[in-house]
Amino acid sequence: MPKLPLKVERSAALSVLVIVVLTASVAALTPMAVAQSAANGQETIADKVAAARIVSQPIDKAAYVLGPQDRLSIRVFGTDDLPDRPTEIGADGTVNLPMVGKVQAAGLSVRSLETELNHRYGAFFKDPEVSVSVTDYRSHPVTVVGAVNMPNVIQLHGPTRLMEVISQAGGLKPDAGDKVMITSQMQFHKDGSAAADPNSPDARFSIKEIDLRKIIDGTDPSANVVVEANDLITVPKAKMIYVVGDVGKPGGYILDGHSSTLSVLQAIALAGGVNKTAAASNARILRSTVEGNSHRTEDQINLKKILASKSPDISLRADDILFVPDSNAKNAGLRALQMAADVGTGLAIWRF
Question: pTM above 0.70?
Answer without folding.
Answer: no
